[in-house]
Design goal:
Elements lengths: L1 H21 L28 H9 L5 E3 L11 H8 L1 H7 L23 E3 L4 H20 L11 H13 L16 H15 L1
Parallel strand pairs: 1-2
Length: 200
């Protein structure tokens, strides 16, 4: 017992050193050096939304839907007018959305668009569908290649929302419930056995 007690500070010190090594503070870390590139197939840029409201909606199990800027304007208009009209930022501004990278300022009463079921993007309708389809395809390909996708949520309801949507997209076999009040050892092993052929 004496040896265990005396080694605890040393263990903690080594753990802290390992944590520091795991932190990548260089520009290679996408969390520190992230570019909102329009052609990216890994993310959709959200504008004029309040993160706390979105998190609360997901935690409560509410269903949210991405919303586009509508149909892209006719490209056959005059060249100068075309550049001004076709810019997504201009279309967002004309629709009353804030397309800046700053979080919207909240007044005493939140704006109705911040409390609805739609998540506003900076994409026109056709571009948004292509982008979301590409993300779903990349996610499916990553799962087939044996890569893991980790989704973390504070409440079970948010996890169930994501699981149900993956099942609707035909990716239910790649979801494995390991730790919950419903997860039993025999059921987990049975699900693993059923998923083994998919892994091969």
């Amino acid at each position: 017992m004496t040896h265990h007690t005396s080694s605890t500070p040393l263990t903690k010190h080594h753990v802290e050193q390992l944590r520091d090594k795991l932190l990548d503070l260089s520009n290679r870390n996408p969390l520190l050096n992230f570019n909102h590139t329009p052609r990216s197939r890994t993310h959709v840029r959200i504008i004029d939304e309040v993160p706390d409201f979105l998190f609360a909606a997901l935690a409560e199990g509410r269903e949210l839907a991405f919303q586009s800027l509508g149909v892209e304007p006719d490209p056959d208009c005059a060249e100068g007018e075309r550049r001004a009209v076709l810019a997504p930022e201009a279309a967002a501004h004309n629709a009353g959305y804030d397309a800046s990278y700053d979080l919207p300022e909240l007044g005493a009463e939140p704006h109705a668009r911040h409390a609805d079921r739609f998540v506003q993007t900076l994409l026109f309708e056709e571009a948004m569908e292509r982008k979301l389809g590409g993300i779903r395809k990349e996610c499916g390909a990553a799962l087939h290649q044996g890569k893991s996708v980790l989704f973390v949520a504070e409440k079970m309801a948010a996890l169930e929302v994501v699981q149900n949507r993956l099942m609707d997209a035909g990716l239910g076999d790649f979801c494995l419930e390991l730790h919950s009040t419903h997860a039993k050892k025999t059921a987990v092993l049975d699900r693993v056995r059923r998923r083994m052929p998919r892994r091969a």
